[in-house]
Structures are given as structure tokens and as C-alpha cells.
Amino acid sequence: xxxxxxxxxxxxxxxxxxxxxxxxxxxxxxxxxxxxxxxxxxxxxxxxxxxxxxxxxxxxxxxxxxxxxxxxxxxxxxxxxxxxxxxxxxxxxxxxxxxxxxxxxxxxxxxxxxxxxxxxxxxxxxxxxxxxxxxxxxxxxxxxxxxxxxxxxxxxxxxxxxxxxxxxxxxxxxxxxxxxxxxxxxxxxxxxxxxxxxxxxxxxxxxxxxxxxxxxxxxxxxxxxxxxxxxxxxxxxxxxxxxxxxxxxxxxxxxxxxxxxxxxxxxxxxxxxxxxxxxxxxxxxxxxxxxxxxxxxxxxxxxxxxxxxxxxxxxxxxxxxxxxxxxxxxxxxxxxxxxxxxxxxxxxxxxxxxxxxxxxxxxxxxxxxxxxxxxxxxxxxxxxxxxxxxxxxxxxxxxxxxxxxxxxxxxxxxxxxxx
Length: 419
Ligand SMILES: Cc1cc2nc3c(=O)[nH]c(=O)nc-3n(C[C@H](O)[C@H](O)[C@H](O)COP(=O)(O)OP(=O)(O)OC[C@H]3O[C@@H](n4cnc5c(N)ncnc54)[C@H](O)[C@@H]3O)c2cc1C
Fold this sequence. Notes:
This protein is of the alpha+beta class. It has helices at about 5-25, 30-40, 45-60, 75-85, 95, 105-115, 115-130, 245-285, 295-325, 330-355, 360, 365-375, 385-405; strands at about 135, 155-160, 160-170, 180-185, 195-200, 210-215, 225-235, 240, 285, 290. The longest helix is centred in the middle third of the chain and has 37 residues, at about 245-285. Bound molecules: flavin-adenine dinucleotide. Flavin-adenine dinucleotide (FAD) binds next to β1, β3 and α13.
């Protein structure tokens, strides 16, 4: 592998860095507060963020995530990953500034791949233009999100309309969003992985009831992680996204690139935390010397550097494999980076907070906010334990196949696994 970014990607990276120095870091705390205070139904972004986004769009730093050159920058996952690292240094504001934040990115990807012309015009174009936000509504409080074959929310076709009934939560960003992509059971009698479909639901549809922003680690403001009830919520049959019963296939498509993006942003968060940790260690004096001279602190810094670089290499490998051999071939690496990056970012942030003492626990630095924001990575998009389960299963299947081959047996097809 050649780790040198192309001149185009290097130039984009530098421009993003310069943009963040000038327009993001100086107002980061204020913009985060404004998101909490101003976002509400009909208001997707607060004014300060609207202004940052307008500048980014003007400079062409916009929709960088889409590998399809017709709609986005046409970068590979590997190339875009490099840019995500830069954006992850300010994980709430920077992706929003460049119209590159989840869940809009994943929703745009599946609309590009599966949307009809009409759906693209109504739902995709305003997202690409940055006029609206969207959300993805899959997880339900009553059943295990780790095993979406247990989903209960139903959609039934009646008189040319889908009638949706069910209960979702952790529909991130629903407050202030224009529409949801809901994953619902349309064919309850089909085999487990073909029961569900994706349906586009504008949030102003009668029966789409936003109950609350679930409070997450003491935070329930802004776009939120919302609890939603669908009660006889009717949308036209033409709001089906992709083929009927293809919910799982589309969800899986959405997750591969999304995980690379999350992981590379987490690595960017690590880089900022390491920088802050070193700056503090070089400045703060205690017990007759700088913190930087204490071996415990040096251990924090050395481990953080080693782990971050390991995580980056593994993530770039996963992205490269996805680009060169396809999403399916890269499944093992994608599961691995999901676990590795989520744990490394928590460890690095924890050490950076520790080195800052009480200041690290306060919201006077971005560290505590980044810790709260990053903790979800160990749970969302598949908890660590589920990814480890599928990583181990693939290894076991491979070993079983090898053993059968050696014994001259016909090769056994490995059991299908999810993740
Ligand atoms: C901040 C945040 C944002 C989110 N945003 C969205 C969103 O926008 N849209 C959406 O639809 N969902 C979203 N989610 C939900 C997320 O996808 C689910 O939380 C996740 O899939 C886990 O499902 P669950 O919460 O039901 O946990 P469960 O499935 O009940 O699992 C609980 C725990 O059980 C353990 N476990 C589960 N399976 C196994 C196993 N096979 N072996 C061993 N241990 C296991 C794990 O430790 C796991 O954490 C979000 C979650 C968070 C925290």
C-alpha cells in the first residue's frame, strides 16, 4: 500500500485544516451551544452553523463523502477517510460544516444507490444542497438492536399507502429533521433477513410522533437521539426505498462506508486529544517538575501515539480493501476497526482528561464533550461484543474450512454471519 495521499486529496486536507483553523475552532463551543439552543422542528441548523456551512460550500468543501462523482467529490473510501480524520478533530461541528455528518451521509448514499428519480428530487437533492437534515429510524426499545431480525414496527400496504405502526428510539437527529428513513417489517412471514424494507417518512406526516429527545449522559438538547411513535402513519406506496424486503441488504450497504468514516473521525479526535495532552504536560508543573517529565505521563502519551497509529493503519487497510476488493471482502477488517477505533478513542480521551485534572472534567476544554460524544461508538452500529462475535466466527469458519481441505473433504461453506 502507498500511504501517500494524491495531490488532490492532500490539497483538500490542507484546505479543510485551514478552514477549521479559521472558521471552526474559534467558534466551536459557541456553535455547540447554539445547536442545543436553536435546533427544533423546522430549524435544522442554528444561524452560526448556517453561516459556517455557507462558507464551506462557497469554497467547494462540500459533500466530500460521496464516491459517486455525479453527486459528490468522487473520492474513494481510503481518500475520504483521510479527510474524515481531519474533521474528527472537531467531531460535532466539522462534519456538519462540510455537509458530511451522519446520519445524512448514509441516507444520501442509499438514496443515490436506491432512490427513484422522484425520490432523488424530493429527498436527496435538498440534502445535497444542505437545506434539510434527515434521520435513520431502526432501533426499537422493546427488542435488541443488535439483532434487527427481531424488529417489530410494521408497515402494511393499504389502498396505495404504507401504514406504519411501531415504536423506535435513538433515531438520531430527528429533532429538526425533514424526513426519516424507517426500517420496518413489511413481510412478517418471510425468512428473517427478508422481512424488512426501508420507507421514506416525512416528519410532518400525521402519525409520526416525536415523543422526546432521550437524555444521553445528561444531554437532551439539539437534534437529539429521539424516541418516536409511528401511529397509523400513512405514506404513499412510492415512498418505498429500494426493493421491498431489501431492508437488510440496504442497511448493510449503508454501514460499511459509515464505519470507516466514524473510525477515521475517531482517530482525528485522538490526534487532537494527544496534542492537548502534550501541550498540558509541557506546561503544567507539579512535584518539582513538568508533568512531561513524569514517567506515568510519558506512558500515557506513548501508548496513545502507538494505539492511534495502529488504529489508523488498520482503518486505512479496511478502506483500501473496500475500495479494491469490495465491501463484502472487507467485512472482517470493517468489524475489526469498529472495535479497535471505538476503544482506542475512549482510552486516549480518558488519558487526556486525566492529564488535565479537574480542567479535563470541565467543559472548559473540548475533551469531556468529545468523550461523551465518542462513547456511543462502542454501542451504535453494532456493539463491540457483536463485532467480536462475528470476527471470531469468521476465523473459526476459516479454520474449519482449512481443516476439511487438509483432510480431503469437500469444503464447507462458512455459516452466514451478520455485522
Ligand atoms: C448515541 C447513539 C446514537 C444512535 N443512533 C441511532 C440511529 O440514528 N438510528 C438507529 O436506528 N439506532 C441508533 N442507535 C442505536 C444503536 O444502533 C443500538 O443501540 C445498537 O444497535 C444496540 O442495540 P440495543 O441498544 O438494543 O442493545 P442490545 O441489542 O440490547 O444489546 C445490549 C448489549 O448486549 C450485549 N450483546 C448484544 N448482543 C450480544 C452478543 N451476541 N454477544 C454478546 N453480547 C451481546 C452488548 O454488550 C450490547 O451492548 C444509536 C445508539 C446510540 C447509543
